[in-house]
Amino acid sequence: MVNIFIIGATGYIGQSLCQSLVRSGDHRVYGLARTAEKARSLEKEEIIPVLGSISDHAELLKAIEEYSISVIVDVAGADKESHSLLAEIKKIGARRLENAANDGVPAPKLGFIYCSGTWVHGSSNVAVDDLTPVDAPGAPNPPAQLTLWRPKLEREVLAASDILDVMVIRPALVYGRAHAIWSMYWGPIYAATQAGARSVTIAAEPDSRPGLIHVDDVASGFHAAIEKLPMISGTGVYSVFDLVTSQESMRDIMDFAAKEFGFKGKVELVGAGDDLFAQAMNTSFNGNSGRAKQILGWTPRRVGFVQGMDVFARSFVAVRL
Asked: Can you tell me which residues the record assigns to a coiled coil (predicted)?
């Protein structure tokens, strides 16, 4: 049984990943919790809580050592905190290897998997994959402005492979379950439905075609990465994997959601404007996950956002009632 520590365990992706790992029965799962209430919510799901925050290095490092953590997964979506956390984890990894060498015994490397995102590819309908350069010479497009910092962190993670077993996983735009990331769009449409409005304006691009993935398939992708990490790291395989299951029209997503909410008016997509998050949400991404399927053995099962909109729209409403 491998001890796994999830940074961001109470977040959108983190919750689904923790549940996937617990259900497998193959791992003991630890999760970071910022408050006592969140710690209790993890305990209810059979996850061992570690009270603290991603910036509280002392508590995190203590937990990593005390619980003999083998793999750390950072799905917190942080910026500076993830940079500094990686630096501290490298110190632990180096110390473990040094102690093992001094004792004359072999020891596995500490594992570290970082959650980035496909927005680093920038916005385009030209086909790309996880071997396509990002934010570098030869990159077809600059990253979405909201994620300009991520390629540098990805490179720092990969550069730590002499000390750690490392991997970078990039999910596309996530949907499913609580649909929290879609509230900025679906919330106004649902409110307009309830109010009987004749129209609603949404800060979305009518020509956008985002790459998409269900949160359960994100979780299974990270689960597959954890299982294959020690077999892949150090072999020369480029340890970056995009996770995407479809590319769909933002116009279709909004129209089909409105129909399922019962909205009779007009949904106007007026563009993302200067909102960096809206710009990122509308990033068009024509990617594929062939390498993740072949190398990690990942098998996505929830394919098609618009296709299942009747279920997804009801789920969004039920969470908020």
From this structure: none
